[in-house]
């Protein structure tokens, strides 16, 4: 949403801008997350503007009642917005009000009484081992230039072999490029948190192979992965590559870049990895998030049962 279209009192406009700077400079949100937070709060303030009949101020925010916040949530429901979208918007709203309280600018306890809308927990489905192998091999059968296919292979291996988010892989600079023989990679994830992920030899080799064939040679501080014109590669290009692979290989519709990261976690779990370790590798702040993103392999559970239960296999 375009914030320039908002009509706000000067004190609220100043607070809105300061909150966005805090999200960017101190919380170090990605541009995508920052835009989402901004859009969510803009949506709420637009509603308040109509609700109040004029540009709202910080005093207006402090005077809002629980019923006013619920009216906003109901309005989103009538517009047909997804519950997941409203849950995120409510999180953005809480962030703004908590920030305002910490800085002594405004406060409203009513916002804490709001509950997130109930929603189904959806899991991105992991690709099978065979589908992953077909996916990696299929990159060289799409008709792309060889250096582009090698670039895509390096990216896919970072997602599947290291469990990186697509934004984390594309944020790597030439200086940070994994090299052949390198055993670990330092990643800056959400909120600026750093983690160390093991690096398979094949990943360093794939990145080196891409760099040797790439017609563009980025400087140390420029993006490692570039497009056909030498500019920084965007996530949409990677998504489009997987969309083409889905049609070429008959992969399921949920075969996305994030599904490769999910496959990394699921295959580790199925191979005997423990949730705490996988949590660290994925960069999740809470174990519950890891449990939501990793589905336990049913066959592995049955195998553990057969080997461990004293009555397994007996009549």
Automatic annotation (TrEMBL):
Cell compartment(s), UniProt: Cytoplasm
Gene behind the chain: xerC
Broad class of where this protein is predominantly found: cytoplasm
PROSITE patterns xref list: CB, TYR_RECOMBINASE
InterPro entries in alphabetical order: CB, DNA_brk_join_enz, Integrase-like_cat_sf, Integrase_catalytic, Integrase_recombinase_N, Integrase_SAM-like_N, Tyrosine_recombinase_XerC/XerD, Tyrosine_recombinase_XerCD
Biological process according to GO: cell division; chromosome segregation; DNA transposition
Tyr recombinase domain boundaries: 122-306
Keyword ATP-binding: no
Gene3D superfamilies named among the record's database cross-references: 1.10.150.130, Intergrase catalytic core (1.10.443.10)
HAMAP family reported in the protein's UniProt record: Recomb_XerC_XerD
GO cellular component, one term: cytoplasm
Quaternary structure and partners: Forms a cyclic heterotetrameric complex composed of two molecules of XerC and two molecules of XerD.
Family, similarity comment: Belongs to the 'phage' integrase family. XerC subfamily.
Domain (Core-binding (CB)): residue spans on this chain: 10-101
UniProt organism field: Limibacillus halophilus
Residues the record marks as active site: 165, 190, 258, 261, 284, 293
General function of this protein: Site-specific tyrosine recombinase, which acts by catalyzing the cutting and rejoining of the recombining DNA molecules. The XerC-XerD complex is essential to convert dimers of the bacterial chromosome into monomers to permit their segregation at cell division. It also contributes to the segregational stability of plasmids.
GO MF term (any one): tyrosine-based site-specific recombinase activity
Protein name as catalogued: Tyrosine recombinase XerC
């Amino acid at each position: 949403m375009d914030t320039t279209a908002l009509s706000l009192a000067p004190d609220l406009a100043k607070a809105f801008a300061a909150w966005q700077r805090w999200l960017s400079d101190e919380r170090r949100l990605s541009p995508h997350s920052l835009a989402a937070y901004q859009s969510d709060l803009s949506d709420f303030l637009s509603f308040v503007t109509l609700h109040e009949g004029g540009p709202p101020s910080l005093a207006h925010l402090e005077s809002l009642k629980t019923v006013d916040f619920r009216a906003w949530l109901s309005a989103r429901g009538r517009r047909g917005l997804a519950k997941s979208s409203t849950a995120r918007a409510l999180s953005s709203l809480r962030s703004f009000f908590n920030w305002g309280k910490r800085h002594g600018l405004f406060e409203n306890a009513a916002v804490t009484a709001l509950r997130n809308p109930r929603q189904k927990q959806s899991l991105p489905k992991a690709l099978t081992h065979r589908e992953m192998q077909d996916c990696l091999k299929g990159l060289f059968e799409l008709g792309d230039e060889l250096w582009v296919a090698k670039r895509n292979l390096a990216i896919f291996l970072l997602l599947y072999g290291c469990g990186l988010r697509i934004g984390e892989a594309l944020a790597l600079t030439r200086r940070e490029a994994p090299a052949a023989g390198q055993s670990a990679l330092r990643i800056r994830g959400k909120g600026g948190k750093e983690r160390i992920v093991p690096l398979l030899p094949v990943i360093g080799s794939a990145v080196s192979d891409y760099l040797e064939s790439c017609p563009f040679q980025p400087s140390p501080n420029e993006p490692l992965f570039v497009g056909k014109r030498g500019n920084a590669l965007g996530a949409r290009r990677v998504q489009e590559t997987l969309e083409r692979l889905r049609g070429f290989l008959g992969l399921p519709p949920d075969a996305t870049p994030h599904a490769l990261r999910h496959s990394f976690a699921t295959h580790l779990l199925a191979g005997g990895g423990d949730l705490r370790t996988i949590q660290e590798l994925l960069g999740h702040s809470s174990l519950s998030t890891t449990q939501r993103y990793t589905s336990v392999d049913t066959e592995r559970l049955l195998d553990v049962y057969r080997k461990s239960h004293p009555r397994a296999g007996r009549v």
